[in-house]
Amino acid sequence: MMLSPDQAADSDHPSSAHSDPESLGGTDAKVLGSVSDLEPVEEAEGDGRGGSRAALYPHPQQLSREEKRRRRRATAKYRSAHATRERIRVEAFNLAFAELRKLLPTLPPDKKLSKIEILRLAICYISYLNHVLDV
User: Fold this and answer.
1) Nearest to 104 by CA among 131, 122, 124, 123
2) How many whole angstroms separate alpha carbon 5 and alpha carbon 21?
3) Residue 105 near residue 118, CB atoms below 8 Å
4) Residue 40, helix vs strand vs coil
5) CB–CB of 102/111 below 8 Å?
6) Sign, CA torsion 79/68/59/56
7) CA of residue 99 relative to chain centroid, distance
8) What is the mean pLDDT of the chain?
9) CA–CA distance from 116 to each of 100, 101, 110, 121, 122 (Å)?
10) Mean pLDDT throughout 87-110?
11) Cα–chain center distance at 11
12) Neighbours of 53 (CB within 10 A)
């Protein structure tokens, strides 16, 4: 049923309810706001998986600090740099163990020791040297 503009204004029919914020009255208009106050949500092209891209990738200002950190670390450049730093750290660690190993007396001298064996032998050797100095 189509109403003329004059009939729509006079009608008490529910479908003709006023939708402008001022007609809602007082505080309700301020609470509800208007549609123009909302930011537009961009929809992704349908990929068949459901959900919207806006829901999966919120605006950067809406991300938590942890989410921003997680996304930054997910980049290939960051992973590559991290792998390089880790490789350098492990090489320095292994070099320090090799130098410590050279200072420890073992029979045979070229015996291969694990890192934990090197640490335990170093503890024993230091204790022995302290005992020798105390006597």
Assistant:
1) 122
2) 19
3) no
4) coil
5) no
6) positive
7) 39
8) 74
9) 12, 11, 17, 8, 10
10) 94
11) 55
12) 13
Confidence of residue 10 (pLDDT cuts 50, 70, 90): low
CA–CA distance, 75 with 68 (Å, rounded to integer): 12
Query: Side chain identity at 120, as an amino acid letter?
Result: R
Residue 55, both tokens: 């829901």
At 10, give phi and psi (nearest 5°): -85, -15
- 43 SS3 class: coil
Q: What is the pLDDT of residues 50-93, one digit of tens each?
A: 555 555 666 667 889 898 888 888 889 999 999 999 999 999 99
SS3 for 46-114 is CCCCCCCHHHHCCCHHHCCHHHHHHHHHCCHHHHHHHHHHHHHHHHHHHHHHHHHHHHCCCCCCCCCCC
Q: In which residue are the tokens 């694990």 written?
A: 114
Q: Which residue in the block uniquely carries the two structure tokens 């529910």?
A: 14
Distances (CA, A) of 102 to 96, 106, 116: 10, 10, 15
